[in-house]
Design a protein that fits this description.
The chain is an alpha+beta fold. The chain has 13 helices and 57 strands. The strands form 15 sheets. It has a four-stranded antiparallel sheet with strand order 1-30-29-28, with no helix packed on it. Residues 615-761 form the IFT80/172/WDR35 TPR domain.
Amino acid sequence: MRLKTSLLKESKHKELVSCVGWTTADELYSCSEDHQILKWNLLTSETSLIVKLPEEIYPTDLHWFPKTVGVKKQAQAEIFVLTSTDGKFHLTSKMGRIEKSVEAHKGAVLAGRWNYDGTALITAGEDGQIKIWSKSGMLRSTLASQGSPVYSVAWGPDSDRILYTSGRQLIIKPLQPSAKIIQWKAHDGVILKVDWNSVNDLILSGGEDCKYKVWDSFGHLLHCSLSHDYPVTSLSWAPDGEVFAVGSFNTLRLCDKTGWSYALEKPNTGSVFSLAWSADGTQLAGACGNGHVIFAHVVEQHWEWKNFVITLTKRRTMQVRNVLNDAVDLLEFRDRVIKASLAHGHLVVATSLQCYVYNSRNWNTPLIFDLKEGTVSLILQAEKHFLLVDGAGLYTFSYEGRLISSPKFPGMRADILNAQSVSLSNDTIAIRDKSDEKVILLFDALTGKALGDGKPLTHKEVLEIALDQCGPSTDRKIALIDKNRDLYLTTVRHLGREPKICKIGSMVHSMAWNDAANILCGIQDNQLTVWYYPSVVFTDKELLPKTLCIKDGSEFRRAPQVLNYIGTKVTLRQGDGSLVYSSVLPFPALLHEYSISARWEDALRLCCYAKDQSLWACLAGMAMANRELTTAEMAYAAIGELPRVQYINFLREQPSKESSLAHMLLFSGQVQEAEAAFLQAGLIYQAIQVNIDLYNWERALELAVKHKTHVDTVLAYREKFLQKFGRKETNKRFLQYSEGVEVDWEKIQAKIEMELSKERERAANTSVRSSVASRR
């Protein structure tokens, strides 16, 4: 990925250009110390004078009123704020008419920014004050006052916090008066520019120490650049938060969100005082010290899938290369390419007006349909359909171009969704709610309606979510990484029950599901960990450590990120931007395939051939989940789990199917479900005995009293338990019932034997009836 820059031979402005701002993806306004505001049309390459400002107005910053305000959406921005050195800010129309000038600061107004919904304007001044104004220019409050100039200011993602500079310090101040202020020393020189991205919640800063730095929203340093030759005078996040640009003297740099540099350009610009990205994130403009306005667009992006490598060679051209036979295809587009995604045998390309869907078997005839909104910010693909996210909403399309669904939820802000907060599978869409990061909203991909009773999934503050891609919809799982970097797994459809959320890893920094099997990989404490069968945690959680493959992290450098896991290849991006590939054995994916198609003999043969303990552990878990006891017994025996082999034999000895099923639920730790299964089958004593075995005395007594049977059995076992530990009864309920019930062990044993013989007799009768029915 690099920037392709363009500069005019002769500068249109006669003096230093101080600020630039985009109205649409192809139209830019620039302001200069020559008092001129120019309009640049990139489609016609024309430049026109909008207005010549009064001689006393020297502009310092320009920011267009946001296009999206609530539900209403303007085609383009109609008004902008212009700050100037005379201590005023000016609300200016698109035609250049100053609608209102407001005395704001003593000395120059150095920065002015609208918040994301356009309800407030913040200004920062040479006088060290930060003020918040209404949309119409009325003063609401003075947020801060300090002794040094505030050179730059930025709104937090939810417009509830302000980031500003104070000499060498950065300060995050919430708008709520009682909330805690975060302040830290960020640079060794005066900080000149900051930016805060609403999608990834990361902060950029650059200053006179000639460095740029990336921070999280708590002030923790994520990346520090090497020292440049000159101070960093400008920087700006791309709207989707994937890349950012940095400007300095005769320098323009494109960087990844983690900080490493994609490309470095050395144009003849003087200092770049301001940088602005177009709304679709494909074009960049810079205000230059020598009177030029520099334009740049992003090219040479790469996408890989199996044997295909696709490169964006020009704004409207892609090159497809098949590495197996070196065949090359060129894809031409009518408009500028904004976003693209390559997966599951399809390439999806969003341009400014249309969406193109290519099948990897035929690159000549794409399916094309028009887009309502030109700023597609995210494309996600599943095997059967894909999801487009733009400023207006989310849309699921089939690969034939048919709109399938468009999920909606209260307070939806589609413009801040990214690949970590949205996940797609063949039947489910999962979205992390930005307004409450403990909530995960689940939708049916085919209807767009909320799953089940509409109740969302809740957990601790979630950072990243990912849905598995294979298997039936009833068995769909979602993996979550929370704020503590713990990895959890839970089911998406839980039929009215509280979802069981199981922890399967800690210190996990990124993750990805395999595209063809429900195998999960992740960076865990700088090691690559592959969970061959993560669902085993619901069947036999003690098997989970035995189903892992852990690769030593010595081959990876600092902070690697998982990009994808396709086939047997995991692609990782290292902290310095280089790509690393790690291969995973093909056997676990084969084992998943055999399990889904119930080919248990083939699964056993595969494990015997591979001689891998982790495969045997996976097979044991899969067989138990599918109640295939013979295979499970052999797999457990192969990994030396003899107590479990004995338990499987105990399951076989159960007189009825109902009893066997209930004991299998107990094996998986599902006590309430096991109890319910016993009660539904009329096996009251067994339900009571389960609670006695688990020392759940109150529940055992409650069942005995409710069904008017085996009260003496519960009391007898309770008495025996207390005698063993030399304790006396203190529970009022047990004292109450022990007064009127006599404990006789012989009677109790006889009663238990009678219950069990009744169950055996009933099971035998059921077996006879089913055999007679089958003969008929």
